[in-house]
Design goal:
The complex is a heterodimer.
Chain A (H helix, E strand, L loop, with lengths): L1 E7 L2 E10 L1 H16 L4 E12 L1 H16 L3 E5 L3 H9 L7 E3 L2 H11 L1
Parallel strand pairs in A: 2-3, 3-4, 4-5
Antiparallel strand pairs in A: 1-2
Chain B lengths: L1 E8 L2 H17 L4 H22 L7 E8 L3 E7 L4 H7 L13 H8 L2 E6 L6 E8 L14
Antiparallel strand pairs in B: 1-2, 2-3, 3-5, 4-5
The chains are: A alpha/beta, B alpha+beta.
């Protein structure tokens, strides 16, 4: 897994590519933790280039979401490939994550929420 | 019939090596894209269960992957050398949305057409067998797989 990082309107945006699994999930958690420690708790993950997610990767995302919510922040996801979206649906995680069809919509939602 | 057989060390790095090995084997055997992804996911879940719960990251224990491709099916077997995996699976509780684990067996059951668990006579660990029917995958278009 690799990621690029940037900030837009106070939201930290990570574009993730590759596999999100047991090993990479841990790395992602560590990266997000650094931002939470700096009180940057508006986090968006663009998953457009994620080629594979398994339950360990999902577990990492759940852990990240819980940590962000604990710090009164917000986690959004966007650009899920069909097969990734299906895994969220099967596990019913699509009900608890804020998932947007594209990054622009997700970032706009932060502006609307204020 | 084409066969893939390989043993992996019980560490996190093996996860990616196994993924690439199995993906290449399935691609060489002309497994269609959506079927390939479903098999990779189910095998990955079985591998992670073997690594974490079965062998408990014990560097002296191996995880064996066998895959067979024939005209009608793809069969995948994952065998560990530990004692924890079958306990982890049999003692799990229904998924709590906010729990970080417990979803792997749900995904295996969703994507594999047939799933069997038993204690392996040789290793004493868990032997997970999965069967995937090629007939379910009529084309390259992604479709809901539990039809």
């Amino acid at each position: 897994m690799e990621f690029t990082k940037r900030e837009e309107n106070g939201v930290i945006i990570l574009e993730i590519s590759g596999r999100l699994d047991l090993g990479s999930g841990g790395k992602l958690k560590e990266e997000i933790k650094k931002h939470i420690d700096r009180e940057q708790t508006s986090i968006h993950l663009n998953l457009a280039n994620v080629e594979f997610v398994n339950s360990s990767g999902l577990g990492a995302l759940v852990s990240i979401m819980k940590e962000i919510r604990l710090h009164k922040g917000r986690l959004t996801l966007s650009d899920l490939a069909d097969y990734v979206r299906e895994i969220f649906d099967i596990t019913q995680l699509s009900h608890i994550f804020e998932i947007f069809s594209n990054e622009k919509e997700a970032i706009n939602s932060y502006i609307l929420v204020g | 019939m084409n066969k893939f057989e390989k043993k992996y060390y019980s560490n996190t790095e093996s996860e990616g090596i196994m993924y690439n090995d199995v993906k290449l084997f399935l691609m060489v055997n002309n497994i269609k894209k959506n079927m390939l992804h479903n098999i990779l996911l189910a095998v990955s879940e079985g591998f992670t269960n073997a690594l974490v719960h079965g062998n408990n990251y014990d560097k002296n224990k191996m995880i064996k992957i066998n895959i067979e491709v024939n005209n009608n099916n793809v069969n995948a077997d994952i065998i560990d050398e530990g004692e924890g995996a079958i306990m982890a699976i049999s003692s799990r509780v229904p998924s709590d949305y906010m729990k970080e684990g417990g979803r792997g067996i749900d995904l295996i059951n969703h994507y594999a057409d047939k799933v069997a668990l038993k204690n392996d006579d040789k290793t004493g660990g868990l032997h997970l067998s999965m069967k995937f029917n090629k007939s379910r995958y009529s084309d390259q278009i992604w479709q809901k797989s539990n039809s």
